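The instructor's notes for this session suggest beginning with a concrete chain rather than abstract definitions. Hand out the sequence below and ask the class to guess, before any prediction is shown, which regions might be ordered.
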Amino acid sequence: MPRILAIDLGTKRTGLAVTDPLKILANPLETIETPKLLEYLKAYCSKEEVETLVLGLPIRLNGQDNEMTPRVLAMKEKLEKAFPDKKIELVDERFTSKMAMQSMIAMGSKKKDRREKSGNLDKVSATIILQSYLERQ
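After discussion, reveal the predicted structure:
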């Protein structure tokens, strides 16, 4: 069964999350360097069946674009060209980083683990974006 994959795009690192095959649960997948994102996604989609790519759309509280919005929209265009057979969805990602940090604290993550360069926060943010998308479906 095809999965849904979420992307929390960052300037340096990008967090990824994926559903289980039944599309019930969102799970952290990986944090990768942003320049390697398309290469990673092509490899992943060649191994796993993915029907939808969900991209977190950063916007301000007042609904205006922020400095990352144009980058996300440009990435959406790249994804549409690279994966013409997949649905590409944008999801409001306001508060996901804050929610991810609170979740990690609640789970007992130490300060060092939350700051870890492997991007734990990015993966958790992508998971929250994906879970939000699933709940709206």
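Then share the key points. The helical segments are 37-47, 69-82, 96-106, 111-115, 120-136. The chain has a mean pLDDT of 85.
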